[in-house]
Amino acid sequence: MTGTLGILAYGSLIDDPGPELAAVVVRVIKEGVITPFKVEFARTSATRAGAPTLVPVTTGGAHIPAQILVLRADIDESTAREILWRRETGRTGGALALGNQTPAGANRIIERLQDFHGISVVLYVRIGTNIARLTAQKLAELAIASVKFADLQEGRDGISYLAAALRNGVRTPLTGEFEQEIKRQTGAVSLAEALRTLRGARRRDR
């Protein structure tokens, strides 16, 4: 039956599910959906030049707005896991070598929620934290460095990631201070201005 399998989207997955996942989504549930776990900007992303990203945390953090991407009726759980894994690891094509298993100590684990907002099974990826001594100052430094020292595809830097999170209603204990610290460190009045300033400086330094 349509609507029995879904993917929990929060963070970048909301705005950028990727073409493979987007192609099998039949509807999106937004109303009243929040993460059943707390999240914080607690992991640096190698694909974002070390920018801080939202991941589940066991201390601190907050429940944030999320969405459920409901999948086509012909997509089974094994296939959904493979699609989600490829989206999260940046791989294309091929099957998930680990099947439904993940080795102990892996920093990405596919979890499942049952009977969540009327959907029988909802999958999500739990990614481990890797930022020690989590502070707004540290997060701002990482976000700024991802713009200042890396030539990323537009929108992949830490400041753009934070701006997108704010647009999607994300508010964690560190969000407000994180935003203000970026403005303070760059002398900007907004995240957009901070981004323009840093990009301009990088172009001049080339």
Attribute tags:
206 residues; alpha+beta; 5-stranded mixed sheet; two-stranded antiparallel sheet; 7 strands; globular
List the helices and strands and how they pair.
Blueprint lengths: L4 E5 L2 H4 L3 H4 L2 E5 L9 E7 L5 E6 L10 E5 L5 H13 L18 E9 L2 E9 L8 H13 L9 H10 L7 H12 L4 H15 L1
Parallel strand pairs: 1-7
Antiparallel strand pairs: 1-5, 2-5, 3-4, 6-7
Helix pairs in contact: 4-6, 6-7
Characterise this structure.
The structure is a single chain. The chain has helices spanning 12-15, 19-22, 77-89, 136-148, 158-167, 175-186, 191-205, and strands at 5-9, 25-29, 39-45, 51-56, 67-71, 108-116, 119-127. With 206 residues, the chain is of the alpha+beta class. The protein has one domain (5-205). Strand 6 and strand 7 form a beta hairpin. The chain starts with a strand and ends with a helix. 35% of the residues are buried.
- Please state the overall shape, judged from the principal axes of the Cα atoms: globular
Query: What letter string, H or E per element, gives the SSE order?
Result: EHHEEEEHEEHHHH
Secondary structure class reads alpha+beta
The helical percent reads: 25-40%
Strand arrangement within the widest β-sheet reads 2-5-1-7-6
Which band does the percent of strand residues land in?
Answer: 15-25%
A few lines on this structure:
The chain is about 35% helix and about 20% strand. The chain has about 210 residues and is an alpha+beta fold.
